Amino acid sequence: MSEIKEIEGGILAAEGYCAASMCVGVKPNATKRDLTMIKSEMPATVVGVFTRNKVKAAPVKWDMEVVAHGLASAVVVNTGIANAATGKQGLENCKIEAEAVAEALGVSEKEVLVGSTGVIGPQLPMDKITGGIKELAGKLVSAKDGADVAKAEAHEAALAIMTTDTQPKEIAVSFEINGVTCKIGAMCKGSGMIHPNMGTMLGYLLSDLSIDHELAQKLLRAVVERTFNMVSVDGDTSTNDTVLWLCNGLSGNEKITAATLGISLDDIDESGDTDMSTLGNEAYRTLYRALYTVCLYLAKNIAKDGEGATRLFTAKVIGAPDYETAKTLAKSVITSSLTKAAIYGRDANCGRIFCAMGYSGAEFDPDKVDITMSSKEGSITMIEQGMLPEFSEEEALKILTPDEITAVCDLHAGSFEAEAWGCDLTHEYVTINADYRS
Amino acid sequence: MSEIKEIEGGILAAEGYCAASMCVGVKPNATKRDLTMIKSEMPATVVGVFTRNKVKAAPVKWDMEVVAHGLASAVVVNTGIANAATGKQGLENCKIEAEAVAEALGVSEKEVLVGSTGVIGPQLPMDKITGGIKELAGKLVSAKDGADVAKAEAHEAALAIMTTDTQPKEIAVSFEINGVTCKIGAMCKGSGMIHPNMGTMLGYLLSDLSIDHELAQKLLRAVVERTFNMVSVDGDTSTNDTVLWLCNGLSGNEKITAATLGISLDDIDESGDTDMSTLGNEAYRTLYRALYTVCLYLAKNIAKDGEGATRLFTAKVIGAPDYETAKTLAKSVITSSLTKAAIYGRDANCGRIFCAMGYSGAEFDPDKVDITMSSKEGSITMIEQGMLPEFSEEEALKILTPDEITAVCDLHAGSFEAEAWGCDLTHEYVTINADYRS
Question: Do the beta carbons of residue B15 and residue B44 sit within 8 Å?
Answer without folding.
Answer: no
